[in-house]
From TrEMBL:
<dbReference type="InterPro" id="IPR025737">
    <property type="entry name" value="FApF"/>
</dbReference>
<protein>
    <recommendedName>
        <fullName>Transporter</fullName>
    </recommendedName>
</protein>
<dbReference type="Pfam" id="PF13557">
    <property type="entry name" value="Phenol_MetA_deg"/>
</dbReference>
Length: 248
């Protein structure tokens, strides 16, 4: 959970779209997730609340700042063996939609990203060093909804020797999402994806399936909820998601 790519998509989706805010427009999001993962005698619970601010420099370029507050607890045979909470790593992203084929509803964007070590790596709340990467985003809009594809890469640097020894630097991500217009104000979303396992020596990579809803209370205010399920043992069993988005 602590070393995933900083792709701030239209919550509750993990897969981002190519949409931007427009020149001079802001969007403020507050997104939350609550996780539960059990394996043998080990029970891991946790979550985060992330505040994300997007600003449109031009109609095709956004700057996105994200800061999460993270917590987790690990129990083994009913006894707490790890328990921490605090601010995670600050992320800065730039989304540039560089291609549009309006007649076909097709668009492509690049999204470079950098994370800063504002989280306490000794508590497992961050990397401990500046890390960076980027993503290729593709979106296709149709009459009934939208489709999105993401291919992303992140190079993680670690402040602790233990993390550097146990965790991979190169993290790859691939995911696909769909949106369907349920009503004029409600969109149903689904998402599937896979990401490199951050643990060295692990050949199984976390894969997920997600479903949820986005409801537009007004033109500029959305609320959302969703559930993400692990498709294999190395992915978190269940993650509950909820968020709000306000555009100004």
């Amino acid at each position: 959970m602590l070393f995933t790519l900083p792709l701030y998509a239209a919550h509750p989706l993990i897969t981002d779209d190519t949409g931007t805010q427009g020149a001079g427009r802001f969007q403020l999001e507050i997104n939350s997730e609550f996780t539960d993962d059990e394996e043998d005698a080990v029970d891991e619970t946790g979550g985060e609340v992330a505040t994300i601010l997007s600003y449109g420099i031009t109609d095709d370029i956004d700057v996105v700042l994200g800061l999460p507050y993270v917590w987790y607890r690990v129990k083994e045979d009913g006894f707490t063996v790890a328990d921490a909470d605090g601010v995670g790593d600050l992320t800065l992203e730039v989304k540039w939609r560089f291609f549009e084929y309006e007649d076909r509803g097709l668009s492509v964007a690049l999204k470079p990203a950098i994370s800063f070590p504002t989280g306490d790596d000794e508590k497992g709340l961050g990397n401990g060093k500046v890390s960076g990467g980027g993503a290729l985003l593709v979106s296709k809009e149709g009459v009934l909804g939208k489709l999105h594809l993401n291919l992303a890469y992140m190079y993680n640097e670690y402040g602790l020797d233990e993390d550097d020894m146990l965790l991979r630097n190169d993290i790859w991500h691939a995911s696909f999402a769909g949106e369907i217009n349920v009503t004029a104000d409600m969109v149903g979303v689904c998402n599937i994806g896979v990401e490199t396992n951050p643990e060295k020596g692990m050949d199984d990579h976390p894969a997920f399936l997600l479903g949820g809803l986005i409801y537009s209370v007004t033109q500029n205010f959305d609320i959302d909820a969703g559930v993400k399920w692990g498709l294999n043992d190395v992915e978190t069993d269940t993650t509950w998601l909820a968020g709000v988005a306000l555009r100004l």
